[in-house]
Amino acid sequence: MTTGKIFWQLLKTELLFVRKNFFDNFINMFIWATCTLLINVHVLKRLGLQQNYDDLFIGGLIVAGIGFQIFAHIFKHVADFSGEKHIDYYLTLPISNYLVLIKSVCAYMVDGFIFGILALFICKMMLLDNMILSNISILHFLIALILTSAFFGCFTLFLVSICQNPGSIGNIFPRIIFPLWFVGGFAFPWETLYHTVPILGLLNLLNPYTYMTEMLRVATVGQQNFLPFWPSVLMLVLITFMTGYLGIKKIKKRLDFI
């Protein structure tokens, strides 16, 4: 069997787990997204939020939805590395050990892409006429969605590499994920952060969440005053490759494969 066929079989096996948990994950996404939109877009507007806040919030919600969906895979890998180590079987197959890890990233990309589309539909359902579908650039949206899913796939691998055991997973969200997500433009554009706290705005140019949220805002409502789309694409690609490289390198050292 060729390397390509083995990789495809491994990927299909990984996707079976994605399909198996799809309905439960969709319910989780639906509850979280509808509650978030209800409060942030409808309730908080009565406290003085600007009227176009709907447009700003779509990109942030889609990014968060994809991230939370893919991050759910962290526990599975950490538990396996620390316990039964099914990964050892995959490493005996006649295929590059790096491809064994890359197939997980590809599966996560598919998972994230699907739930990114679902998040967009939930936004439309909740915002109704406040979300104008004709403003969406299909090309920009697909590019942003694919790159966002790719980043989270690689970032998940990196987070797995730094978790020594299942007990350490609890430190990942408050120490790493939450600061990057919350400061990375979930509920506000980068320009607002820069004009309010310039130093934090400049530092946030190192935050991948900044580029993902800005790209999706450009894709769903137009360029406006967001970061330019194509430079954001370039930066996210660079960060994704760096994150994936570090994650694979650390897992390679941890599992001691060649």
Describe this protein with a few key phrases:
258 residues, mainly alpha, 12 helices, 75% helix, 0% strand, globular
Number of H- or I-type helical stretches? 12
The helix content is over 70%
Described by strand count, sense and barrel closure, the largest sheet is: none
Count the E strands. Answer: 0
Shape: globular
Low-confidence stretches: none
Mean pLDDT: 89
Summarize the structure.
It contains twelve helices and no strands. By secondary structure, the chain is mainly α.
What does this structure look like?
It is a single chain. With 258 residues, the protein is mostly helical. It has one domain. 75% of the residues lie in helices and 0% in strands. The chain is built from 12 helices and no strands. It is globular and about 60 Å long. The mean pLDDT is 89.
List the helices and strands and how they pair.
Layout: H1 3-20, H2 22-43, H3 53-71, H4 74-82, H5 87-90, H6 97-127, H7 138-162, H8 172-183, H9 190-196, H10 198-203, H11 208-221, H12 229-255
